[in-house]
Amino acid sequence: MMIKKEDRKTVLMLCDDIRMHSGIATMAREIVFGTVQHYNWINLGAAIKHPEEGKALDLSKSVSDATGVEDASVMLYPNSGYGDAQKLRQLLATHKVDAIFIFTDPRYWTWLFDIEREIREHTPIVYLNIWDNYPAPLYNRGYYESCDLLMGISKQTVNINKLVLGEKAKNKKIKYVPHGINEKEFYKITADSEKNKGDYAKYLEFRENIFENKKDIEYVVFFNSRNIRRKSAPDLIVAYRAFCDSIGKDAAKKCALVLHTAPVDTNGTDLRKVKEAMCDPSYVNVYFSGQKLSTQQMNWMYNLADLTVLPSSNEGWGLSLTESMMAETMIAANVTGGMQDQMRFVDDNGEWYTPSSDVPSNHRGTYKEHGPWALPIFPTNISLVGSVPTPYIFDDRCSFEDIAYAIEQAYNLTPEERSKNGKLAREWATSEEAKMSAANMSLNVIDAIDETLRDFKPRSKFDIIKVGERKRDYVEHQLLY
Fold it and tell me: Checking DSSP bridges between strand 255-260 and strand 393-397, what pairing results, if any?
């Protein structure tokens, strides 16, 4: 519904600069663009050492041009980092803000949670949040309690919000708001499509450049994520080598693995060295794409792939899987975190699996039936790791042999079968059940924020607490299931 600019509520969004290309910035931009007819937006836009820090930029015209909403109102305040209490107070004094919207790891917002009572006396805090894995992070309880609305990106996150809050969850707004991909930017490219006129020739040229003019590549495996430890890119390279050995050298010469990532990262490893040690270049084709690509070029990447693989040992969502599904390309992924949502596992009642305290995750393979577009890789080891700020979290490791098997499963399908499964992926992602399109994500956000604004009860200046025996705090959900 279109609301006049002067009648709209104003939302202050604290996250990455929405002009950037991080996953957070991409999703935040889609939310702003998809709701700009309903809200006026202010973005305190973070970047590392932001070159425009201290400026106030009016993005309204560019957003109007992009969305067709003539009276869009979007202000951007570039900032080095996610802000602080002083910066927030300045913005609240300058603008009439109806809601504060935060998005990313809660440890970036400790300064905000420290002053939440001051803020929530007048303004609700809404949090688009995600958590990678169990056991339920009781160390996040204070963060969740400090928000008026928790929008969980994955079904697992919604369950974690409820488990951590316990009885207090009954009085908290908790909504499922999965990531949504712009279906106009990620789609299948075909030579005979009217939509793709002029695009297809450029796509073919792009494909040739990726494969360094090698003409006989018939099967492509794609990885698009950061080169950091939990993404398990080295396991994928070893798995791809094992796959090539399994199908034989002559067949392997017509296959390729493309990794769109930084080949060297101190938070990960030197993937070029991994390739050199593990892959005989005479028959194992591994290509790196380390440069930044436009959205159009990323769509081309998913189109040249037959299978997108994400073997992460921890993953809140896995945006590359959703983009791949929207481009009608099959996916294979470790069964952990939000990646489970996109595989559409089916429970004993024939319903799309929803985590509970009894079966918090499907990483143990409780349910095997899933969407035909997905090839689940179940972890073979679930170990507890952690750090001082996050003392415990499960690390779900899948074996490289199982990754290789998933790659071979897709390889053994005919191109027609892979195409059929890819079409089903897009149909489901854009359906009313999944709601993984940008348009559906924006509608989910509007519904959740509007309800929160309507029901908002200002925080009292103080609480009176009766001191009694402290209840022991421990994880109450099942660990074995």
Answer: unpaired
